[in-house]
Amino acid sequence: GAGVSQSPSNKVTEKGKDVELRCDPISGHTALYWYRQSLGQGLEFLIYFQGNSAPDKSGLPSDRFSAERTGGSVSTLTIQRTQQEDSAVYLCASSLRVRTYSNQPQHFGDGTRLSIL
Amino acid sequence: GESVGLHLPTLSVQEGDNSIINCAYSNSASDYFIWYKQESGKGPQFIIDIRSNMDKRQGQRVTVLLNKTVKHLSLQIAATQPGDSAVYFCAEQSSNTGNQFYFGTGTSLTVIP
After folding, report:
1. Distance, CA of A10 to chain centre
2. Strand partners, A34
3. Residue A8 preceded by cis peptide, ω within 30
4. Which among A7, A63, A87, A109 has the fewest CB atoms less than 10 Å away?
């Protein structure tokens, strides 16, 4: 489809395991964002990629969290040594960006529901 | 720091009535605002946006009003339908925070048939 695609849609894993979450942004979108959403809560910013610039990692909660974006398209969010408090929905969004600061809406995927047992 | 909040966490309206969802923000430099709709089990869906050089913008059955004086944003939904039941988020962006968006916690809208 033409929207943001995330996989897997659901992930259940044991505490201490590593997980990888994938995001395919909308074709042509240069900006990509990762957020975390806990039950009944708003969106918590994690990391932002824009083109070939260094990512803004200011929202990553700990060094167990990391993300990559290969070829300016697909992104992977990795959580190492998962903890129960990592359980949440992880949302990816992408947007166009034309200038240094550009008002462009973010378009979201349906998220990965991560449950840590 | 940034603060984007919603006045009411829940809102119930009768089918066919108009709905108004409110949002307050604290950064006077904010210049771009978006409303999102999030249905259960899905990601936020873009509804409508507005830039700070406007105070009103209309879409299909939705209107966004921006009052920069009191830093207030509202979403009006005309002739609310059961399919409008969802959580609605406002988001804001400002040039002094780069490309980050700040989101409110959301208002849950329930449409009563």
Report:
1. 14
2. A47, A92
3. yes
4. A63
Summarised one tens digit per residue, pLDDT across range B85-100 is: 999 999 998 877 666 7
- Residues near B111 by beta carbon (within 8 Å), at least 6 away in sequence: B12, B13, B14, B15, B19, B80, B81, B82, B83, B84, B85
Please state, in angstroms and rounded to a whole number, the distance separating the CA atoms of residues B21 and B9. Answer: 10
**Residue of B51, B93, B99 for testing the chain A interface, max A β-carbons within 10 Å:** B99
- Can you tell me the distance from the alpha carbon of B74 to that of B50, in angstroms, rounded to the nearest whole number? 11
Count how many residues are written for chain A.
117
Q: For B99, which of A6, A50, A108 is closest by C-beta distance? A: A50
Identify the CA nearest to A5 among candidates A113, A112, A99. Answer: A112
Over the stretch A36-95, which tens digit does the pLDDT of each residue have? 998 777 899 999 998 888 899 999 999 999 999 988 799 999 999 999 999 999 999 999
Sign of the alpha-carbon torsion through B106, B52, B49, B83:
positive
Name the token pair of A23.
């995001």
3-state secondary structure chain A: CCCCEEECCEEEECCCCCEEEEEECCCCCCEEEEEEECCCCCEEEEEEEECCCCCECCCCCCCCEEEEECCCCCEEEEECCCCHHHCEEEEEEEECCCCCCCCCCCEECCCEEEEEC
Tell me the shortest Cα–Cα distance from A61 to chain B, in angstroms.
16
| B46, B49, B104 member nearest A42 (Cβ) | B104
